[in-house]
Design goal:
The complex is a heterodimer of chains A (48) and B (574).
Chain A lengths: L21 H26 L1
Chain B lengths: L2 H21 L6 H6 L6 H12 L2 H14 L10 H19 L4 H8 L2 H34 L3 H48 L6 H11 L18 H18 L1 H8 L4 H34 L9 H8 L4 H31 L2 H32 L11 H9 L4 H36 L7 H26 L4 H26 L5 H21 L11 H21 L2 H4 L4
Helix pairs in contact in B: 1-8, 1-17, 3-8, 3-11, 3-12, 3-17, 4-12, 4-17, 5-10, 5-12, 6-7, 7-8, 7-17, 7-18, 7-19, 8-12, 8-17, 8-18, 9-12, 10-19, 10-21, 11-17, 14-15, 17-18, 19-20, 19-21, 20-21
The chains are: A mainly alpha (48), B mainly alpha (574).
């Protein structure tokens, strides 16, 4: 028998001081990704 | 390896396995056995996801990749953070809301039984074969360099992972993976520190990075739109997105790592952790390889890094050819060292024109040594058409054994074994779970009420897949090409499996019959593209694109079939 399905918990709140919403967390991850790509581009140019 | 190395190696590996098995020995509820403890937090989930993906080959091959081709391979991971955002936002909440054990169970709930069995069957074929390679691939490299017996290494590591995975199930896997990642991080950071300390005093880390950059090893990002180029930002973002989405969102070996846990929040944060650390971690490992390349610019460097294979031929009938190649390489290597000294002097002088001229001469000298290395590989193939000529996998482990102090050698070999055990445990756990839930319990629904019996069955299936993997790894020694074939197998199936899930999530009007036959048609298309690529060069593109094409074809065919099928077939549900 499968376990009982999870009742929807507070989906919009992350419980973090910041970001407080999951949308904010995803934007933060995306922003970090963009920053990493920029940093790697600058790194490659600096040491080229 | 000396006694100290063995103490470090066995102490960490056996200690972690015993700790995991002992702590989880009383697991007798199916839910805990398959999903782990309900208290598991985001950090453990995050490390478990990381350990399942990072196999021993990650730590053997990727530094070699950095050594050989530079750090550009990091672009392959550019799609990963984006894929994990989608998994967190779409896949994970649905899996948890439905309370499923496997991702394929979700397909059964959304479509029908045959679509569930198709997804689970594709997973068992692909992952079951790959599980053997997870043991074999690092074992063959470690055994060649360290002189261990291959069969005993495969059986020893295989049995160790079976013991704790069968005993404690998912909880044991997550617990041991946490400590194994600790060993891996400690080992890699130690290797980096020791490596940097071995650079010439006047070079330093900055000078080493400039030298690596001058020789083209630090071209991390390539914005080219040329499809013939293997690693670019675009192939990494788009091809990598679909590959990562399929792997993290649908492959049970990953889904099982985050589907349990204390709450949706903990699972999400575990995945977010991976989205943030994965690219920097892979870059660090590649950079380590590029710095090993710099290290060998100031040392006598072998012409071929798989020394055992090289010596075997150098002492054979064609020995003279091999010794001549060694001498030629040594001479050119010395000439390159002189060019490096001139380049360093030019940089110290600060004249840009002199630096550019010295750099050009250095690049020419590097190309000359590379040409001899290519010549050496051709000589190996001429002596033995079946000789393994890819020596980049041996670069890092040969450096470890030859250059690092005792104790650290044991720690670094423990890194390789820990990575092998961690990814292997995740695979066995997932194979056992899928066999139990999607096949055994699916065909024997009455047995679903007997918890203890279900746990026993799950343990037997896990043990079966462990023994199967050992047997396959022992057999793989007779078929070297099998490893590449199985790596390709993953790309061939992943796109279509992802297509099944994307139809399930986003194309609400498509029913089971349409998606089943749409998936079969898409898989046939991918097989056709794969087998026709040698006949038609236009089809000979990177395997990464199979993920995108398979996924898109599955979704398109499903939509077309849904429109064509009669209403009673189109809306089929289990």
């Amino acid at each position: 028998m499968n376990p009982p399905p999870e009742t929807p918990d507070n989906d919009s709140s992350t419980g973090l001081p910041w970001p407080r919403t999951w949308r904010g967390v995803y934007l933060f991850v995306f922003g970090c990704f963009v920053l990493v790509v920029i940093a790697l581009t600058l790194f490659a140019r600096y040491f080229a | 390896m000396n006694v100290l190395d063995w103490i470090v190696l066995l102490g960490t590996m056996v200690g972690i396995a015993a700790y995991g098995a002992w702590h989880t020995r009383h697991t007798d509820h199916l839910d805990t056995y398959l999903k782990g403890n309900k208290t598991t937090g985001w950090f453990t989930i995050g490390l478990s996801v990381l350990a399942t993906q990072a196999s021993a080959i990650t730590f053997l091959s990727i530094p070699g990749q950095g050594f050989e081709s530079g750090v550009g391979f990091v672009q392959n991971y550019f799609g990963l953070p984006l894929a994990l955002i989608i998994v967190c936002a779409v896949f994970l909440p649905i899996y948890r809301k439905l309370g499923v054990y496997t991702s394929y169970e979700f397909l059964g709930k959304r479509f029908d039984g045959k679509t569930r069995l198709l997804g689970a069957g594709l997973f068992l074929v692909q992952r079951g074969l790959a599980a053997g390679v997870t043991i074999y691939a690092p074992a063959i490299i470690l055994c060649t360099v360290l002189g261990w017996r291959l069969d005993l290494t495969i059986i020893g590591t295989g049995l160790l992972v079976i013991v704790y995975t069968v005993t404690g199930g998912s909880a044991a896997v997550s617990l041991t993976q946490k400590w194994q990642v600790g060993v891996i991080f400690a080992g890699m950071v130690t290797a980096f520190v020791v490596l940097v300390s071995k650079f010439p005093a006047d070079l330093g880390l900055g000078g080493a990075a400039h030298l690596a950059g001058a020789l083209g090893k630090l071209e991390a990002v390539d914005w080219s739109l040329d499809p013939a180029k293997r690693y670019t930002v675009w192939s990494g973002v788009f091809g990598g997105l679909f590959l990562s989405l399929s792997y993290f969102g649908t492959d049970q070996s990953q889904v099982q790592r985050y589907i349990g846990g204390a709450s949706l929040r903990e699972s999400r944060l575990g995945l977010v952790f991976n989205a943030l650390v994965k690219i920097p971690m892979q870059f660090f490992i590649l950079l380590l390889g590029a710095l090993v390349f710099v290290f060998y610019q100031f040392q006598p460097a072998p012409v071929f890094h798989n020394r055992v294979e090289w010596q075997r031929h150098a002492q054979g009938a064609h020995g003279e050819t091999f010794r001549a190649l060694e001498e030629k390489h040594a001479g050119l290597h010395q000439a390159k060292q002189a060019r490096i000294a001139e380049w360093q002097a030019a940089r110290a002088g600060g004249d840009p024109a002199a630096v550019a001229a010295a750099r050009t001469a250095l690049v020419v000298a590097d190309a000359a040594t590379n040409a001899v290395r290519a010549e050496a590989k051709r000589a190996l193939l001429a002596a033995d058409p079946h000789a393994p000529v890819k020596d980049s996998d041996y670069v890092f482990i040969s450096f470890i054994v030859a250059q690092l102090p005792h104790g650290v050698v044991g720690l670094l070999v423990a890194v390789m074994i820990a990575a092998a055990l961690g990814s292997k445990a995740g695979e066995l756990n997932a194979l056992g779970t899928t066999s139990t839930i999607d096949f055994w319990r699916h065909f024997r629904p009455l047995a679903a009420h007997d918890e203890r019996r279900n746990v026993r069955v799950a343990k037997w299936f896990t043990a079966f897949w462990g023994v199967f993997a050992i047997g396959f790894a022992l057999f793989a020694g007779f078929a070297e090409n099998l490893i590449e074939a199985i790596n390709i197998l993953g790309s061939i199936f992943y796109g279509v499996v992802l297509g099944l899930f994307l139809v399930a999530f986003f194309l609400k009007k498509v029913g089971g019959t349409a998606v089943f036959w749409g998936a079969v048609a898409a898989q046939t298309l991918i097989f056709a593209l794969f087998f026709l690529r040698q006949r038609y060069p236009v089809l000979d593109f990177s395997y990464l694109w199979y993920n995108l094409i398979g996924c898109a074809a599955c979704m398109l065919f499903s939509l077309i079939l849904q429109a064509l099928l009669p209403a009673n077939h189109a809306n089929s549900r289990q």
